[in-house]
Amino acid sequence: MRFRIKLAIAVLAYIFLGGDPEALAQQKGQWVPGQFGLNAGVIPDPGVTYANLALNYSASQLNGPNGNSVPAINGTYSFWVDENIFYYVPKHKFLGGYFMPYVALTYANGELVANIAGTNLNTGGGGSGFADMYVQPINLGWHLKRTDFNLGYAFVAPTGRFTQGASNNVGSGYWGNDITSGTTVYLTKNKGTSANLATAWEIHGQKSGTNITPGQTFTAEWGLGQVLPLKKDMSRLLQLGLVAYDQWQTSKSSGTLTVAGIPIPESRIPYYSVHAIGVQANFILPAKDLAAFFKYYDEYHALARPQGRTFVFGFSWTLRIPKPEPPKN
């Protein structure tokens, strides 16, 4: 019975994020789905742009590797991340496109409360603080006749608090390398209707203090949107659309995770994946280079991970450099 309890704790700790934010990095990659939707390929006007993105994820269902819920384990898992993103777009073109490096500074807060049926055991944990830093030093965007497209390389620096075995970690404890892309195709001549796709391919380094290297991850985020003018002079716009995200683990993790004295080879852990669909609304003031957004996603299928829902909201504002010339009378 003691072995069964230990094994149940080990499985819970691994698959259901371990009772603490550290296990999020043990099983999953560093990309949190819900970053992009509509206007995925669009880059800001030349100048400095600040964007704030707040994301809340919550789940009360744990799915096994076949996609069915695990009734023996119940509870709630949730986290908030607040991303402060700074873009810089020079005026002059490079390779026919615009250079757009950016950095994201993130504050995170997470909590897990879980119960293992039949053992009379509860587990919980959580942490808050500044998380890992996302830096995209190479990012190029092109404005074509009916398409906006960007392609870049980013890295994730493990700046968030991480101590192996701690229950209040907010960092992953390892470096990550990302290859990203964004595409917006305008389906109508006036560019009011668009199809959008953003992708991120993650390659991970070894976790500090362990022999574990998480497997690679691929994420696709897409959307179909329509712009509706709120004023005839197009000074206020409403954009509505359908959005979704899909994420897959694409390669085996390596190393051994030991929980409650039970060694678990990472290569034996089932691959995880998740799929969600939802809606997005944007309120845009083109003359002021200001936009606000809201997104909601419902996860309809997940393997070897929690299945829940995601809320995202925030805004972006651009200080154009040089300033646009006032319209001539």
Describe what you observe in this structure.
It is built from 2 helices and 16 strands. With 329 residues, it is mostly beta strands. It has one domain: Lipocalin, CATH 2.40.128. The protein has a 12-stranded antiparallel β-barrel with strand order 1-2-4-6-7-8-9-10-11-14-15-16. Strands 12-13 form a two-stranded antiparallel sheet. The longest helix is centred in the first third of the chain and has 14 residues.
- Which regions contain 5 or more consecutive residues with pLDDT less than 50? 1-26, 119-124
Reading the helices and strands in chain order gives: HHEEEEEEEEEEEEEEEE
CATH architecture tag: Beta Barrel
Helix content: under 10%
CATH class membership = Mainly Beta
By CATH, the topology is Lipocalin
Tally the beta strands. Answer: 16
The rough form would be described as globular
Strand order of the largest sheet: 1-2-4-6-7-8-9-10-11-14-15-16
CATH homologous superfamily annotation: Autotransporter beta-domain
Oligomer: single chain
User: How many domains?
Assistant: 1
Give the helix/strand class: mainly beta
Mean pLDDT: 86
CA radius of gyration: 21 Å
As a percent range, the share of strand residues is over 45%
The number of distinct helices, counting runs of at least 4 residues, comes to 2
Topology:
Blueprint lengths: L1 H14 L6 H6 L19 E17 L9 E17 L8 E2 L2 E15 L4 E10 L2 E11 L3 E11 L18 E11 L6 E12 L12 E13 L7 E13 L6 E4 L2 E4 L7 E13 L4 E14 L1 E16 L9
Antiparallel strand pairs: 1-2, 1-16, 2-4, 3-6, 4-5, 4-6, 6-7, 7-8, 8-9, 9-10, 10-11, 11-14, 12-13, 14-15, 15-16
